[in-house]
Each structure stands twice: as structure tokens, then as C-alpha cells.
Write a structure and sequence with these properties.
The structure holds two protein chains of two kinds. By secondary structure, chain A is of the alpha+beta class. In chain A, about 20% of the residues lie in helices and about 30% in strands. Residues about 25-40 of chain B have low confidence and may be disordered. Classes of the chains: A alpha+beta, B alpha+beta.
Chain lengths: ~575, ~150
Amino acid sequence: MKRRFFWLSIVVLLMSTFVFPLMTVQAGDRSSDREEYVLDSSTPSRTFPIMHPDDLTVRRWQDRYERAPRAYINEDLRNRHAATAVTTTASTGSVSSINILDRLTYSPSESQGSCGDCWAWAGTRVMGVDLNTQEGISANLSVQYINSCYGDYACCGGWLSDVVDFYNSKKKAIPTSNTYATFADASYSCSYYGSVSKVSCSKISTTTNYPISSIAEATITTTGVSQAAAIENIKNILDQGKAIWFAFYLPTSTAWNNFYNFWNNQSESAVWNSDTYCGQTWSSSGGGGHAVTIVGYDDSSASTDDHYWIVLNSWGTTTNRPNGLFRVKMYANYGCTFSRLSSYALSFQTLNIEWGASSADTTKPVVTAFTIPSSSTSLTVAINSFTATDSVGVTGYMVTTSSTAPSASSASWLTSAPKSYTFSSSTTSGSKTLYAWAKDAAGNVSNSKSASVTLTISSSSNADLIVSSISNRNTSISQYIRTFSVSDTTKNQGSASAAASTTRYYLSTTTSKTSSSVLLTGTRSVASLSAGASSSGTVTVRVPTGTAKATYYLIGCADDASVVSESSESNNCRASSYRIYVLY
Amino acid sequence: MKLLSYIKSLSEHALVALVLAVVFPAILSVNCALASSSPKQLVGGPCTYKQYKGNAEIVSVNPKPGNPATFEIKFSFHPKKAIKEEFARNKDRQWNLVMNDFSDPREDFVKKYGIKSGKRLPCYMKVITKGTCTPVMFDFPTINRDTAE
């Protein structure tokens, strides 16, 4: 009886642990699909069951928001506002009602559609205003540029920091008048797999562009200060001719339906009160955030109740909203929060942009040390020291047998100094000279520093290790499931025996191992293999934290540490035919 | 009391199993509940829609002020069945028909599809059900709104 109870308990334990939770998750997923679907038929039909980014992403956004430098407050403007005012208060001479929308070139009917890239629209418009304020250039900047060329999926949500990261990598903005730069993703939506943009990045012309030397976000202080100070800070940024990236959260689907109602059925003169839902409980299914652009304010009324921010949306126009604008009550609760949401309901940021190409770096790096042993019996020679300096920073290291400087765009550059160099299998015994090079981000290649080694090649260099087979299953990697099994066979197809080696595994977006391939935790030790011998085994590997969301090939590489001298060092890796989907 | 005496009568193995069977899943459940209720937020992100089949009735076709080569086309939407969402329900509401690149239609487009007041075009109204994207959009399955046809 007791024995039966024991086994019964074990069964219940296993069911409780593995089966019931799975049933719950599946039911939850299906319920979200029951009545709703993604409309666009040109992309694979799919519903994104997780309406929100993962905790890590949220924490990254919040961290960037809180760590961003505070927006510059111009003390001179506190009582004397800019010349773009449309009305002034006669009695004081101080300025009311700033509207910098006229500094933005945009088409009111432009709409993000079903693509959740409001963050990119709002950020791009802050840039458009800044381009006009600083450079006097009127250009409708392309949002499609971000949609097509940003590594992450633009339609799946983002933050102003994503706009900053994108433009810090591209170093230029482009107008919508460029070929394929007009927004084309209005019918696209967030998806797990494949391209979610109608336009590939390579199709977009960047011939006309506005160079960016630097771009950074700045947070406007609106919390931890009085309401008056918060308002004054926001006004001050607008008075400087800067637009504001404004993100707001609503806690429930009811709140969002009310906002849609406000947007669709009221006129541009109606004022929306963001305070209505403060203190309510955040719904993980119905709550959500939206980013828009504040382009002005009106505080000309005697009553502060009538003061408002002028806000540009990215939902196109309605017959009631010919300019795509809405108004937000100015005297609001800037410390508004929702229970179960750890951030404030309202966020205000702007951008500090230095337009124009950065001054060119023409200084070459200098290789300060490069030493190798004077002799070696192996084709692989250890590098005892390899250091270099640069006025900005060394970004690449390379060792060659040629005294001719390598191209800065060569694929052979390494991001860190190599610890060894392996001569080609056809190398014969004798004195050999190696040349060490360094390069910087601007593409300057150093002069070389050379060192010589005398090679005495033994027959063991005729070993040749390969991964003759590798297999796994199509595997999805989530935040919670990061490991999977790999089976491989490592073979010595050379004519001499190979010493013990280690097979390692990578994720790569191509079928080859490249410098950007991701090394997985988990290796397989391969014992010494005689000529023609093989070693098979299975190992559990782990995908490291921070691996970018993408679809990868699994790559197995024999003797990945290059401890065995081989007749060929270029055939050690093999790609699996199955894919690894990193989803977070 | 009966339960207590029964538990006392169990062997050590059975007791361990009982604890594992009850306590371990309970801890798991609490962890899962905490994880699912942890605060998450979104700026933009995935959106889902439902769509209503119906007709778009052209209400007016007028040259665009300032750019007479283009037209401002307004239409009203007549759904086949009642629209559930209040924010999309106003039956007197008029909407603008624009091209896929958000430009106003040109004369060749108006001529090609015989766009004039009173004309009815098959149309789908897309109404947002989740997310923070554009709340109402329209699809016209019988006309091509790409600018470069």
C-alpha cells in the first residue's frame, strides 16, 4: 500500500511539474489566437503571443532611460522664450504657445499602420526638427531606413535608445525622397521569423544623406521634481527648438479603447488627460505603451486647466485630425504610475545630435610589440607578444607572411591579438618571417612589425581533422531554454596521427564560422586519433546570454584551439542542416 | 486528526514523496505566477486586428487645395455586420482614401477606377484589438493603391 502510494506520488509530481504547466501555456497561447489575427496576408499569418518585450529588454530600456544624461536646460529661456512663438502675453512680454511643427517636414497622412514602430516614428521626427533647427535643412527623414536596416525587428517595439544605437552605427539620416525610403511597412507586423520589412536594406538609396557625427538621448527631468518644474523643463526643451520623444503607457485595453475613441472621434482641439488611469493596475495583456512627438505647447489661457502640449502622432489623419495631431493636458500628474508596472507612466526624452561628418582620423595605429619563438617544429607557431596602440583605438589585428599591408576591409582581421599563427600546409622547413599589423575604426592600417622563426616540419603535420558529421534538431532558444544537444563525429582524414584535440561549437548566421559567430559553452574532448580514425560523441551546449535574436546555423569545428598541426586548417568546420532559432 | 495519524503511519520514502509531490509543484506554481505577473511594458510592438467586411461609399472627390493634380477622396464605410468596437462605430464618419505611400490619389487613379460620388467599393475595415498601432485602417481588395502601378 505504502509502496503504491510512493509511486503514485512520483507520478503526481512528474505530472505537476511537466505536464500541467505545459497544458496551461498552450491553452493560454490559443486563447490569444481565438478571435484575433494578424491581417496582413503577405507575411506569414501569425499572432505574437507575448504582447510585451521580455524583462531583460524592458530593464535595458529603463536602464538607458534612467542613465541617459539629463537634457540641457537653458537658464536664459526660463523667462524669455524663443522667437518662434505664435502668440505672446502682452502684459509680460514673455512668450506663450510655442509650435515648432513648422520645422518638421512630414506628411500628415503617413501612418505606421499595423507595424509597432511608433518609437522609430517619434524618434525620427525629433531628428527632423533638429535637422531644421540646427542645419536649416527641411527634409522628411525616412522611417523605413530603420525598419529595413535595424538588426532587431522594428515592428516589435523599441525605445529611443534603439534610434540612437541605429544612427550611431549608420552615421547618417536619409530623406524619404531617396529610392525605396518611403515608408512601406504599414501593412506589416511583428513576427518571429524572417524579414518583417517589405523593403530590404540594400535596396534603400543613401545617396542623399545627412551625416551624423554623434547622436545621444537625453532624459528630461519630470519626476522627483514639482509639477511646475517638470512642465518648465519640458517647455525649456521646446523653447530650444528641440522636439520631444514622449512615451506614455495605458494600463488596460479599456483605457486604450478610450484613447482610440478620443483619437478617432474627437477633433484636434480636444485635450486628452493622461491622469485618468493613474493608480490603476497594469494588465499584462491589455496594457501597452506608445511613443509620439511633442512639437509645442499652448499656455496662453488664463486657466492652467486649458494649457496643453501639442503632440504629433504616427497614426495618419482622420477627417477630424487633418494634421495628425492631438493635445495632452499640461498640468498633469508627471509621477503617474500603475500598480504592477515598475516605471512611470510618462517618459520624456530628446536627442542631442551633432550633424556633419566627424573629423577624420588619419593617424595609423602602431604595433608596439611582436615576438615569436626563434624555432618551431610545428606549422602552428605561438605568438609570445603582440600589442598595438592608436590615438583613437585599435580595432583589428592581423599576422601575415607578406610584407604588403593588408586591406582594412579584409575579412582576416581579428578583434583581439592572436595567440598563434599557423602556416599553410604546403609550407616547407626553413626560416620564415611573420608580419604583425593593426588597424583602427577609420580604416588606418599600421606599419608592420616583423619577427622570424625557423621551421622544422615533422611528418605529424600531415594529420587533418574534420567534423565529418554533425546533427541536432531544429531548436528554439528562449530566455528560459538555452541548452540543446549536439552529436558529431570528428575524423582524422590525414595520413598521420593527430594529438588529442577539442571540438567546439558555434552559432553562425551563415554556413561558415566567421569572426561574428557565437561560441557556445560546452566542448567535446577528442582523444588522439590515428590516421583515418574517428571519434563520435554527444554534448550539451549552452547559448550565451546576449546572443542576438536571429536564425542560426550550428557549426562544429574540430581542433578549434588549433593545437594540432594539420595539412589543412581550413576544413575543420561543418554546419548542421538544422537551424537554431534564438527568440529573445 | 485522521490525516495526521495517517501521515505518521507512512514510511520515510512515502513522506519524502508526499512532500515532493505537494511542495515542489506549489513552489513552481508560485514562481510561475510571479513571473507572469512581473511588470512589463511596451512602446509600440505587436498589434493584432479584426476586420469587418463591407463597402466604402465615395462621398466626395475634390481637387486638393494647393495641388489640383491630386484629389481628396472621402468615403464612408458600410459594414455587413455591426461593428463591436465603439471607437470605430460612428456610421456618419468619413474617411480619406490615400495611396499606399500616403500620397493623395492622382487623376489617372480616379479615372482608372471610376471614382466618383456614390460609387461603392468592396472594402474591409481593420480594427485594432491589441497593441498601440494605428487603430483603424482600410483595405480595398479591388483597387491597387500602389503609386507606381
